[in-house]
Design a protein that fits this description.
With about 180 residues, the first copy, chain A, is mainly α. Chain A has helices spanning about 5-20, 30-35, 40-45, 50-70, 75-90, 90-105, 110-135, 145-160, 165-180. In chain A, helix 1 packs across helix 2, helix 4 (about 50-70) runs antiparallel to helix 5 (about 75-90) and helix 4 (about 50-70) runs antiparallel to helix 6.
Chain lengths: ~180, ~180
Amino acid sequence: MRADARDNRARIMTAADDVFGRSPGASTDDVARLAGVGIATVFRHFATKTELLEAVLTLRLERIRDRALELAASDDPGTAFFEFFTQVVSESASKLAIAEALTAAGAAAGEEAREAGRGMREAFSGLLTAAQKAGAVRDDAEMPEVYALLIGASRGATAAKLDPETRDRMLALIYDGLKPRR
Amino acid sequence: MRADARDNRARIMTAADDVFGRSPGASTDDVARLAGVGIATVFRHFATKTELLEAVLTLRLERIRDRALELAASDDPGTAFFEFFTQVVSESASKLAIAEALTAAGAAAGEEAREAGRGMREAFSGLLTAAQKAGAVRDDAEMPEVYALLIGASRGATAAKLDPETRDRMLALIYDGLKPRR
DNA sequence: GTATAAACGGAGTGATGACTTCGAATATAT
DNA sequence: ATATATTCGAAGTCATCACTCCGTTTATAC
């Protein structure tokens, strides 16, 4: 691959992440314009709009997974779990916008993105069981419902455009429900 | 207004509620087809697609508010509050689809729909304070974050396509966080 | 420096969907 | 029953957007 091509590909992905993170309804032209390339260049690198969205979403998910793995190395599993949860919720807005753009573009997430999602969930699951073993999270809370809480808190915070204080108060309520019964 | 016109208007709204509740990306033609009228008839009653979506969303919100007012008359405020919460979450899928269709159609909710939203929130607020007075919900939980929880749980349940059992387990976790500290 | 293979950009193309027009149909008043 | 005012619907118009074509430019191998 020629050096300029590699550069352009990277620039397109950055631009797409930015544009779609802000408004899911954005057009491919918008991405090209922000990236400073012609529209044909975008389609040379990503055959369809869906493909581009998937690439961007996958990157996001992988970054989140990496953050989880990083925190898993910590020696305070309880703090690690709640910190990860909080972080995902605070940064959820743009990721959700991208995911929404994808579903709006017709297709469900493809294999690549789904794989990345699985990896992310696995890492989160690791954080959860570690926190439970450490006694920071109640044992009878299982992955599906805890994950649902994560998604829900993210989507709720985004949809309601919560200011940080309200968001933290909401998270505090959720965390109280997750802590072991006294 | 002529009788047939009134009939058609009602049929269009029902059809729109159904269609947009299922798929936010649906076209106006889809609505007309399901309602069994021509497309021009739809636009005669609702000048723009946005206007139609708003009318449908407003109706939904008003129904939810009415349900809250109904439950407010109950003599067990705690049960009333949690029952309302559960019900809103279970029925959220199609309402959210409509709201999404609206934002996708460009405009934010107009005055009419926003007014309906306010009414709904007020009714919910009434349920909350009653439940707190009855000792069923912790006193330090305030409306903004509790409302955020309601939105979040709704959106989470919808987005993750939770099966009813997982949804209930998620709600149980939330409710534990809302109950007074022991 | 030049050849050439690869990448580039901008002007199309075709499909979709919101909205309009206008002649046909139908409800109500007399 | 008939007049007429209102409503109806099918066939348009117009803009947008994903995607393609092709002549031009540019990076790299020699």
